Task: structure prediction
Amino acid sequence: MTGMFNVAMNGTVHKQILVVEDEKDIAQLLQLHLSECCEQVVCAPDGQEGLRLALEQQWDLIILDLRLPGISGLDICRHLRSTQSYVPILMLTAKSTELDRVLGLEIGADDYVTKPFSVQELVARVKAIFRRCDALALHRGQNDGSARIEHGNLALDLEKRQVLLSGQTVELTAREFDLLHHFAAHPGRVFSRAQLLDSVWGYGHEGYEHTVNSHINRLRAKIEPDPAQPSLILTVWGVGYRFGN
Ligand code: CA
Result:
């Protein structure tokens, strides 16, 4: 799969990562290991600096600690999503705070890693995020930038990662878009929550089926004419969900 990466002469990929983490040891560890595979890794030691850098430059990924001095990771994530920034966000959360984890995913983080984590696991997660992004970019390239999925009055522009409902833009988080894209690319097919976690979130999310439910509820609130009587993303009782008829 590494063939999908844009590989530079020295074997690193042309990716820029921002790490917002106040614990120096963790920040240094991440910088050390991610620098082996990525072109640029910049660390910010607090929330203000993290938010400033996040907004100032284009990043391929932001790794965001939740507990930060100044502005919290959740607030940074919320702010970035409210500015319609769809940069992938990987959250670092403490083991004891499942609430943070769930909340983080719900406000638009793409993935999370629980502290203490193994560097290998974190690097694997980072590569999985890049693979998803690169696969999408490749797909766009193959479709000459005009890839589009239409279903009734709903249209997905895969190049711009934009969703239009009766011609009006619908603001989705990166994960909501990926989820809708997955459904719309397979109309009529039934997916279990575990299958959706696997396909849309990637590996390592066993046991987080409720994350799927909450994302689908938010997606329905944004795209369904009547979220209480869904007509696009349908519940298949006891199995999961399917898109369309
Ligand atoms: Ca911290």
Summary: Residues 1-11 have pLDDT under 50 and may be disordered. Residues 22-23, 65, 67-68 surround calcium ion (CB under 6 Å). The first helix runs from residue 24 to 35. Residues 208 and 219 are 17 Å apart (CA to CA).
